[in-house]
Design goal:
Elements (H helix, E strand, L loop, with lengths): L1 H11 L7 E5 L5 H9 L4 E4 L2 H10 L5 E4 L8 H6 L4 E5 L2 H14 L3 E6 L27 E7 L8 H12 L6 E3 L6 H6 L4 E4 L1 H4 L8 E4 L9 H14 L6 H7 L4 H13 L5 H19 L10 H10 L3 E5 L5 H4 L2 H4 L4 E5 L12 H10 L6 E5 L2 H9 L3 E5 L6 H5 L5 E3 L2 H8 L2
Parallel strand pairs: 1-2, 1-8, 2-3, 3-4, 4-5, 5-6, 6-7, 9-10, 9-12, 10-11, 12-13, 13-14
Helix pairs in contact: 1-2, 9-10, 9-12, 11-12, 13-19
C-alpha cells in the first residue's frame, strides 16, 4: 500500500488550501482505505449502501463518508440510517423529496449537493442548469443544500471539460462546488472547484477481469469440508489408518483413491489393495451422506455473490474438483443454475491435485490464454495444482489451516473470505 500514500502526497501538492479531497473508495478493500486514512485523509466516497454499511463497521468512526453514486429512492431509508456526511448525488426532485421525508422521520437534517447535468452524455443524470432556480430549499426543511456536483463529458477535449465546469460554477459563488476526478481535476481546480473526487489516481486503475475462473468445490462452493473431515476420520480409522481433520484439509484436492493409497503406504510401506481402496471410499461416502442427512451442505458465505458478479460480467465460471462425491456433483447445476460453463471432476482425470492435470484440462476446454484465467482454491494442494498449471491462483482461507500454508504453496492472493475476494474483483 506504499503507492497509495505516495499518490496522496503528490495530489496534495497540487491542491490549494481549502479544497476538500474526497478519496473515491468504492469497490476498494478496507486495507486500502485504511492506508489512505493513515496518510491523513478523512473524506471517502462510496456508491453502494450495502458496501458503505459494511465499511463503516470496519473503519474509524471519524471518517466523513460521502455518498457519490446514483441513489434509488428505495435505498434512502437505509442510507440515512448510516448518517452520511454528505449525499453528493441528488439528481431529481423525487429523490430530494424522499430524502427530506425520511430525514424528517429519523429526526435530523441531511446535508446534500444537487447534481447538475451539463455533460454531452444522456447516460449522466442530474438537474438541468435552467431548473436549478425553480428549487425552493424552504420546501425541504430536513435537507440542507450545500452546493452542486457535476461530472464533465467523458472526453479529452479540455475546452469541453472547461465548459462543463464553468457552467456549474456560474450557478453560485458560494457553497460547495464538487467537480473534478482523477483525469480532469486540474481543470476543475482552475474553474473554481473546492471539492474534488479522486479514485484511480489514488488507489490505482481498476483491474481487468479474467475471461474464465476455475473454482474448487469443497470449501469454495460448499461448506462441506467439516463433513469430509469427519467422514475421512471415521472411514480411515475403521480400517486401521488413523486420520485427523488437519490431514483431510492438507490432502484436500486429491482424488479419494489417492488419499487412501497415500495413507496406507505411510503405515504399511506398500501399495494398498484395490479392494481396500474401494471399501474405504464407500465407507467414507456413506459416512458423508449420513452426516449431511443426504442434504447439500450450506454454501460458503459470499460465494453466490462472487459467482453472480462474474457471471453478470460475462466471465466463464468452471468447477474443478477432485471430488467423486455424487451427492454434491449431481446437484451443482441445480444449486447454481446457468452459472457453470463446465465441470471437471475426479471422473475426468487420471491424476488429481496437486497434479496440474485438472486445471490444465479446464484451461484447455475454456479456449482462453492462461493469462486470461484465474483459479480460486482453499487448500494447499489445490493452490499447488493451480500454480503448476501456470495459472493465477487465489486462495480463500475458509478452513482450519493457517494463511501461511496457502501462501507457501505460491498463492498469488490470499483472502480471509469471499466478501474480500469480491471486493478485490471489483477494483
Amino acid at each position: 500500500m506504499v503507492g497509495i500514500a505516495q499518490a496522496i502526497r503528490e495530489i496534495r501538492t497540487q491542491i490549494p488550501d481549502g479544497v476538500v479531497l474526497v478519496c473515491v473508495s468504492k469497490f476498494q478493500p478496507v486495507e486500502a482505505i485504511r492506508t489512505a486514512y493513515e496518510s491523513g485523509e478523512r473524506h471517502f466516497g462510496e456508491s453502494r449502501v450495502q458496501e458503505l454499511q459494511r465499511k463503516i463497521t470496519q473503519l474509524p468512526n471519524d471518517i466523513h463518508w460521502h455518498f457519490i453514486g446514483h441513489l434509488q429512492s428505495n435505498k434512502v431509508r437505509d442510507l440515512l440510517k448510516l448518517r452520511p456526511y454528505l449525499i453528493q448525488s441528488v439528481d431529481s426532485v423525487h429523490l430530494l423529496e424522499a430524502i427530506n421525508t425520511e430525514a424528517g422521520k429519523q429526526g435530523y437534517i441531511q446535508d446534500v449537493l444537487i447534481e447538475v447535468h451539463v455533460a454531452k452524455e444522456e447516460t449522466k443524470t442530474g438537474f438541468a442548469p435552467e431548473d436549478i432556480e425553480s428549487l425552493q430549499p424552504l420546501q425541504y426543511p430536513n435537507v440542507h443544500i450545500l452546493g452542486y456536483m457535476t461530472m464533465a463529458t467523458n472526453t479529452d477535449d479540455e475546452d469541453e471539460i472547461t465548459r462543463c465546469f464553468k457552467a456549474v460554477r456560474s450557478l453560485s459563488r458560494e457553497g460547495i462546488m464538487s467537480f473534478g476526478m482523477s483525469d480532469d481535476y486540474p481543470i476543475a481546480l482552475k474553474c473554481g472547484a473546492n471539492m474534488i473526487r479522486i479514485g484511480s489516481r489514488i488507489f490505482g486503475e481498476r483491474r481487468k477481469l479474467p475471461k474464465a475462473v476455475f473454482f474448487d468445490q469443497d470449501g469454495v462452493l460448499f461448506n462441506s469440508m467439516p463433513y469430509h473431515a469427519k467422514s475421512w476420520e471415521l472411514a480411515m480409522t475403521e480400517n486401521g489408518m488413523p486420520f485427523t481433520a488437519e490431514q483431510t484439509y492438507r490432502n484436500e484436492g486429491r482424488t479419494g483413491a489417492s488419499v487412501i493409497a497415500e495413507a496406507y503406504k505411510l503405515i504399511h510401506h506398500n501399495e494398498a489393495p484395490q479392494e481396500l481402496i474401494e471399501a474405504v471410499y464407500a465407507a467414507k461416502s456413506a459416512h458423508f451422506n449420513r452426516l449431511t442427512g443426504g442434504k447439500l451442505p450450506e454454501l460458503i458465505p459470499g460465494i453466490r455473490e462472487v459467482l453472480d458478479y462474474l457471471h453478470s460480467k460475462g466471465v466463464q465460471c468452471w468447477v474443478v474438483t477432485g471430488s467423486g462425491q455424487r451427492s454434491l456433483l449431481d446437484k451443482l447445476n441445480d444449486t447454481f443454475p446457468g452459472i457453470f460453463s463446465g465441470i471437471i471432476t475426479a471422473y475426468d482425470v487420471k491424476y488429481g491435485k496437486p497434479n496440474p492435470e485438472p486445471y490444465l484440462k479446464a484451461w484447455e476446454r475454456s479456449g482462453f490464454d492462461k493469462s486470461e484465467c484465474y483459479v480460486v482454491e482453499n487448500a494447499p494442494l489445490g493452490v499447488r495444482a493451480g500454480k503448476a498449471a501456470g495459472l493465477f491462483t487465489i486462495a480463500v482461507n475458509t478452513g482450519i489451516l493457517s494463511d501461511s500454508e496457502l501462501s507457501v504453496e505460491g498463492a498469488d492472493k490470499v483472502f480471509p473470505n469471499m466478501d474480500a475476494l469480491l471486493q478485490w474483483l471489483k477494483l
